[in-house]
Amino acid sequence: MSSFDYDFRYLQAGLEDLEQYLLSGEIFWNLTTPAPRGEPEYPRLTLGSLLLARVRLEARQLTIAQQAQVADAILRLDAVRTHWRVAWEQKAKRSFGVRLRMWRDFIEEYRDSPSANVDRYSYEVRLRVMLHLLGEESDLQNKAEVDLLNSLDAYLKVNLTPGKFIWESEIQAGFPSDVYWYLYGFLSENIR
User: Fold this and answer.
1) pLDDT confidence band for 192 (50 / 70 / 90)
2) What are phi and psi of 161, to 5 degrees?
3) HEC letters along 115-159
4) Residue 192: inside a domain, yes or no?
5) Using CA atoms, how far apart are residues 167 and 184, in angstroms rounded to an integer?
6) First to last CA, the chain
7) Are residues 179 and 101 located together in one domain of the fold?
8) Where do runs of H (alpha helix) occur along 24-63?
9) Residue 179, Cβ density class (10 Å: 0-12 exposed, 13-18 middle, ≥19 buried)
10) CA 182/CA 175 separation, integer angstroms
């Protein structure tokens, strides 16, 4: 998916705009920082993408210099989270709802046309990871959203063929299979 530089520069760019982003009504915030040469453009800043970049960075085997850079960035992230706790939690709740609808849409597209969507899974499953991370950031009290996520998970468990970790092996340690079970398998063109 991406390199250390890609994730680290995204986290840094997000930190530059984080306070403004948290205090805005926006879920998706445009970044002006370019991605490293040869890598895809950065997605817009979202709380879910920022949290995902953090976990990916923490999972990597890093040099001592990289460890120091990441530790400093995470301290800054945690300071903003603490200072703007209410805004952070509100953004996490709203982001959860948006990402849940996006994840539901992918699952429905897969249900409707497995052969046309099966190859998208390794990319789209990032939404499910973000849902987990966003759920840890706020007290999810919306029963309809929790029920929807549980039903999507139940469907996925029936249709996911267990297998090896589907993202880069160098970040696997950050995504244990007992928590991130949906990263350890693949969908097939034959749905159940």
Assistant:
1) low
2) -90, 115
3) HHHHHHHHHHCHHHHHHHHHHHHCCCCCHHHHHHHHHHHHHHHHH
4) no
5) 9
6) 29
7) yes
8) 47-59
9) exposed
10) 10
Long-range contacts of 91-95 (CB under 8 A, 24+ apart): 91/21, 91/22, 91/27, 91/47, 92/47, 92/134, 92/137, 92/138, 93/138, 93/140, 93/142, 94/27, 95/27, 95/46, 95/47, 95/48, 95/130, 95/134
- Global pTM reads 0.94
CA–CA separation, 64 and 125 (whole Å): 31
**pLDDT value at 1 more than 80:** no
Identify whether 76 is part of a domain. yes
**Could you tell me the residue range of the domain that residue 52 belongs to?**
4-87
Average pLDDT over residues 68-91: 97
Q: CA nearest 12: which of 92, 76, 58, 59?
A: 76
List phi, psi (to 5°) of 88: -60, -50
* Half-sphere CA count of 56, side-chain side, radius 13 A: 23
